[in-house]
UniProtKB/TrEMBL annotation:
Enzyme Commission number(s) from the entry: 3.1.1.29
Residues spanning the membrane: none
Coiled coil: none
Family listed: Belongs to the PTH family.
Name of the protein this chain belongs to: peptidyl-tRNA hydrolase
Keywords: Hydrolase, RNA-binding, tRNA-binding
Signal peptide: none
GO MF entries: peptidyl-tRNA hydrolase activity; tRNA binding
Pfam family, one: Pept_tRNA_hydro
Length: 134
């Protein structure tokens, strides 16, 4: 589960994917387990939910380069694109609304575009979190 965003700009609307991962880590009682993984240039935490092992990932890069971290982690942890969930902001959804989308285009989102390019696939599941338009 990758939370897309701008690592140095925490707390902004476009980094909501990372905020969602922070909350998920707290709910799964692994919030103290975040560690920097230099191999994929990301903060990672391991969790278990309903018998599934999860790798939570927050890229330590700007949004346009998030895909490099996601693709590196996929290689390191032996994941295929279908195993990956991308959590990201969506301007076209009302604030707080959530939608899940399987595959497809980036729909203008630079972080998703970066992931599609780096993974050479668009088969990742997207968890789109509405941030509304300013």
């Amino acid at each position: 589960v990758a939370g897309l965003g701008n690592y140095g700009l925490r707390g902004t609307r476009h980094s909501v994917g990372m905020e969602v991962l922070d909350r998920l880590a707290r709910q799964l009682a692994v919030a103290e387990g975040w560690r920097a993984d230099r191999r994929c240039c990301a903060d990672v935490a391991l969790a278990t939910a309903r018998g599934l092992e999860l790798l939570l990932l927050k890229p330590r890069r700007l949004m346009n380069l998030n895909g490099l971290s996601v693709a590196s982690a996929a290689e390191i942890y032996n994941l295929c694109p279908e195993d990956i969930y991308l959590v990201h902001d969506d301007l076209d959804k009302a604030l707080g609304k959530v939608a899940i989308k399987l595959g497809g285009s980036a729909r203008g989102h630079n972080g998703v575009r970066s992931c599609i390019s780096a993974l050479h696939s668009n088969e990742m599941t997207r968890v789109r979190v509405g941030i509304g338009r300013p």
